[in-house]
Amino acid sequence: MRPPHSLPPSETAVLVVDVQNDFVDSEGRGGLDGGDMRPLQEAVGAINRLIEEARESGAHVFYITVEHGPQVDNVPYQARYERRGMTPDDTICQTGTWGAEMYAELLKPRPGEPHLVKHGYDAFEVPELAEELRRRGVRSVVVTGVVTELCVRATTMSAFEKGFFPIVPRESTASDEPEVAQEALVSIER
After folding, report:
1. Residues near 68 by Cβ (< 8 Å), separated by ≥ 6?
2. How many CA atoms lie within 13 Å of 39's alpha carbon, on the beta-carbon side?
3. What is the per-residue pLDDT for 3?
4. How far is the C-alpha of 182 from the C-alpha of 128, rounded, in Å?
5. How many beta carbons lie within 10 A of that of residue 79, not counting itself?
6. In 3-state terms, what secondary structure has residue 56?
7. pLDDT tens digit string along 105-136?
8. How large is the C-alpha radius of gyration of the chain?
9. Residue 22 burial by CB count (10 A; 0-12/13-18/19+): exposed, middle or buried?
10. What is the pLDDT of residues 85-101, one digit of tens each?
């Protein structure tokens, strides 16, 4: 199949990845650990504009969040926490906590807009994501969210591998390390 020059909104979905308190809010884990949350908070404004435009045009909107904790983290995650001196209950976006909730400034899902929960970087690790995108006739995904160099990049690469045309608007993703985010965007573009 040749890549289309443009896809109608009905064949496009905006994926909102990990816009959660621990990643974006100044009182979340990233902010309390000394991260500069301003770039992430600024990206939320651009993400909200995309969500509004998607809704107005008839494109689909999917929300994906991550949850961690001893009951859901795989062995490599647990080993990484141990190397960092963290306990199993000291994870970012801990299941059932305020840190795992969507950031207050993010537009919330409307009825019919899926909210899927993952336990790793790649949103496509949740089989229902690709299944639901295909069921709705989606061919192109606009990947937004945080953090650029981890979950956004992993989701984008996986979307490509699964046969979707990925688009990553630079202003709709961020990291508390802007240089690292920029390197990830260059990598994605290549």
Report:
1. 77, 91, 92, 93, 94, 95, 100, 119
2. 19
3. 53
4. 30
5. 11
6. helix
7. 999 999 999 999 999 999 999 999 999 999 99
8. 16
9. buried
10. 877 677 889 999 999 99
